[in-house]
Amino acid sequence: MTIMPKKISKTIQSRTDRLLEVREFVLDAARQFGFSEEEASKIVLAVDEACTNVIKHAYQNAPDKTIQIEISRDKEAFQVSVIDEGKSFNPTTLKNPDLKQHLSHFRRGGLGVYLMRTLMDKVEYNFVPGRKNEVRLIKFLTPSESGSRN
Amino acid sequence: MSEFKINQRDGEGISVIDLKGYLDAHTATDLETAFQKLLNDKKYNIIVNCRDLSYISSAGLGVFMAYIEDVRKNNGDIKLSNMSPKVYNVFDLLGFPILYEIYKDEQEAIVKFKAKAKS
Questions:
Q1: Predicted confidence (pLDDT) per residue in A92-150, tens digit
Q2: Lateral strand order in the sheet of A7-13
Q3: B89: pLDDT strictly greater than 60
Q4: Which residue in B3, B65, B68 is closest to A20 by CB distance?
């Protein structure tokens, strides 16, 4: 088995046609770390949602900016950081939507943040206004998965 | 790169949209175009067959939310079918089964539309 380095990263342009490449990068790393296909898929979707939010909101669809995706591992924790230099937005102030009400009013936005929270074990934000925004998506290996790594 | 494909089949007053590949923020606009065309053509009985849909993000789900109201106002519906467990899980996380009819098989959705047409 290939041992994944402690930290790997990838920088993409802020365009939605680069999302596929991001998903492949994350899927590969999550599999190598030992996650099941189901758990790896959750991480991939959460990272897609984070990058999509950056493209649409932080960069407001400007295609020539950059997004850095940094994957690091520490024992049983797998962390993906999505870093941009766009407009800051603090989703920790967002309440989880009442899904039934949200859907019945056919509101399209805000579901990405909810999905990230639901799919990951921990979501953290780090903002340096005007310089950098970072979303950290963290998932822990369950005991059965970490057992299968040995 | 053809990461997402849409095919449309029309018959018996029902339009079936087959989705194939990856539905994300990049490809969601293709689905919007397809729904817009259906509305322009006044085709409101729509089944979205997800058999070959490998992936969906909230941008893709947003398209269904954007059009359902107009479709239902015109006495139609968007019914979904043939989802893989992985794709269904995303719909489920966002509460879609409360407001959308999701069937295991396209044929069940066709039967529902036909029953409604008779009533």
A1: 666 677 766 666 555 556 789 899 999 999 999 998 877 899 999 999 997 666 555 54
A2: A7-13, A66-74, A77-84, A132-140, A122-128
A3: yes
A4: B3
Helix axes A37-53, A111-119, angle to 10 degrees: 150
Does B86 lie at the interface with A, CB-CB under 8 angstroms? yes
CB spacing of B95 vs A100 below 8 angstroms: yes
ipTM of the complex: 0.92
Q: Residue A79: is its pLDDT beyond 60?
A: yes
CB A69 within 8 A of CB A27: no
A94 touches chain B (CB under 8 A): no
The CA R_g of chain A, rounded to the nearest whole Å, is 16
The dihedrals phi and psi of A98, each to the nearest 5 degrees, come to -75, 105
Selecting from 3.40.50.170, 3.30.565.10, 3.40.50.150, 3.30.479.30, what CATH number does the domain A7-149 have? 3.30.565.10
Supply the pLDDT for residue A150: 40
pLDDT digits (tens, 9 = 90+) for A13-25: 999 999 999 999 9
Confidence of residue A6 (pLDDT cuts 50, 70, 90): confident
Nearest CB among A16, A41, A56 relative to B24 is that of A16
Beta-carbon contacts below 8 Å between A and B: 70
Residue B69, chain A, CB below 8 Å: the answer is yes
pLDDT, one tens digit per residue, over B21-53 is: 999 999 999 999 999 999 999 999 999 999 999
Q: Which residues of A touch B61 (CB under 8 A)?
A: 111
Domains belonging to chain B, first-starting first, are: 4-113 (3.30.750.24)
Contact status of A23 with chain B (Cβ, < 8 Å): yes
> Helices (H), strands (E): how many in chain B?
5, 5
Q: Which of A16, A18, A118 should be substituted to probe chain B, the one whose Cβ sees the most B Cβ atoms within 10 Å?
A: A16
